[in-house]
UniProtKB/TrEMBL annotation:
It comes from Candidatus Methylobacter favarea. GO terms for biological process: DNA integration. Pfam families: HTH_32, rve. Gene3D superfamilies: Ribonuclease H-like superfamily/Ribonuclease H. GO terms for molecular function: nucleic acid binding. This is Integrase. Residues 315-330, 339-355 have a biased composition (Basic and acidic residues). Residues 134-299 form the Integrase catalytic domain. Residues 315-355 are annotated as: Disordered. PROSITE patterns: INTEGRASE.
């Protein structure tokens, strides 16, 4: 609501603008009021807080101060202090007592600033966004997860473990097992470290909060190998988006079996073919449409440089076909996981500068 002083100030501004040659209607529009409102203020002779008259109506069903206090007294009693209104009201009804509805209980407690954690147990700590991570080269940031593969036996699944290098998007390790296990996940990690020549404190491994991810064997193995663990928030799949995207790509491939897998060997054989295609043939849109292996081994820089040369030559040959610069074939320098707003802004600026 506009106060008396504010209305007087608005009227003086409008008259000042009108005296300088502006129309009152345009001046009112600039200040966000209607011309009819200004006319009403001027006709009244004085600017009142609110020209409307009426009587204050108190609803008949409004609780009195004594009734509200009775609700608070019951809610704060030793018997009910740790219970919510949805539990208090039914108990009172069993005893033949009705003070107010559940919604009224909640409203009164909220007005009294008592609608918070009412139990003696510890308040749940907030789940903060995981630390922002980034990779500027291979073998700096890995992610991993497990997905189900259906079998011909209803309700029985196989479990695909997949480890990805975030910088290149390359699958650096995988295996299919008959159950989820922290021990088997640790075996895959040890194999990756040995095969890729990973040094201590070189890699951060991000995953969600599932049992095998935070199992004692897995965490002990990471500590022994000098790998820093990182975890998503509970039930927040967006904290591990690369794994989710990879699993969708896997299960939407045209070659994905229409029928469930009959046995473990068949599943492993199919995943072997998928990983070969994904790493060696698939051209990923997020890394300028080079293959993951080319990105992982550093071949992408020469390939992208060649593409740039081809485009510049084409523009030079037929300049009338180009309105601006040629397509940006600069390699992607940084891969982010759960970036902060500052990181996103810097990425946009770098992309704009490169273009």
């Amino acid at each position: 609501m506009i106060t008396l002083a504010e209305r007087q100030q608005i009227m003086s501004w409008i008259e000042e603008a009108h005296g300088a040659g502006a129309r009152r209607s345009r001046a009112c529009g600039v200040l966000g009021i209607a011309l009819r409102t200004l006319q009403r203020w001027q006709q009244s002779g004085e600017v009142s807080e609110d020209g409307r008259r009426g009587r204050a109506v108190i609803p008949a069903h409004t609780l009195s101060d004594q009734e509200r206090q009775a609700v608070l007294t019951v809610a704060n009693s030793a018997e009910f202090a740790a219970l919510s209104p949805s539990q208090i009201v039914p108990i009172l009804a069993e005893r033949g007592q009705y003070l107010a509805s559940e919604s009224t209980f909640y409203r009164i407690l909220r007005d009294a600033k008592q609608l918070k954690h009412r139990q003696a147990s510890h308040v749940a700590s907030p789940c903060r966004k995981p630390k922002a991570l980034k990779a500027t080269a291979p073998h700096q940031l890995y992610i991993w997860d497990i997905t189900y593969l259906p079998t011909s036996v209803k309700g029985v699944f196989l479990y695909l473990y997949l480890f990805m290098d975030v910088y290149s998007r390359k699958i650096v390790g995988w295996q299919v097992y008959e159950r989820e296990s922290s021990e088997w996940a640790a075996d895959i990690v040890r194999d990756i470290v040995r095969r890729e020549g990973i040094k201590r404190q070189q890699v951060t491994l991000h995953s969600d909060n599932g049992g095998p991810r935070k199992g004692a064997t897995m965490l002990a193995t990471l500590q022994t190998l000098g790998i820093l663990p990182s975890f998503s928030r509970p039930a927040v799949s967006n904290d591990n988006p690369y794994s989710e995207a990879l699993f969708k790509t896997l299960k939407y491939r045209p070659e994905y079996p229409a029928r469930p897998f009959a046995e473990l060997t068949q599943a492993r054989r199919w995943v072997t073919g998928f990983v070969d295609w994904y790493n060696l043939e698939h051209r990923h849109s997020a890394i300028q449409f080079v293959t993951l292996n080319q990105r992982h081994t550093g071949q992408d820089r020469a390939i992208l440089k060649q593409r740039k040369t081809v485009y510049e030559a084409a523009k030079k040959q037929r300049p009338e076909r180009w309105r601006g610069e040629t397509r940006n074939w600069e390699p992607v320098r940084v891969a982010h996981l759960n970036p902060d707003q500052k990181d996103k802004k810097l990425d946009r600026q770098a992309l704009k500068k490169a273009a």
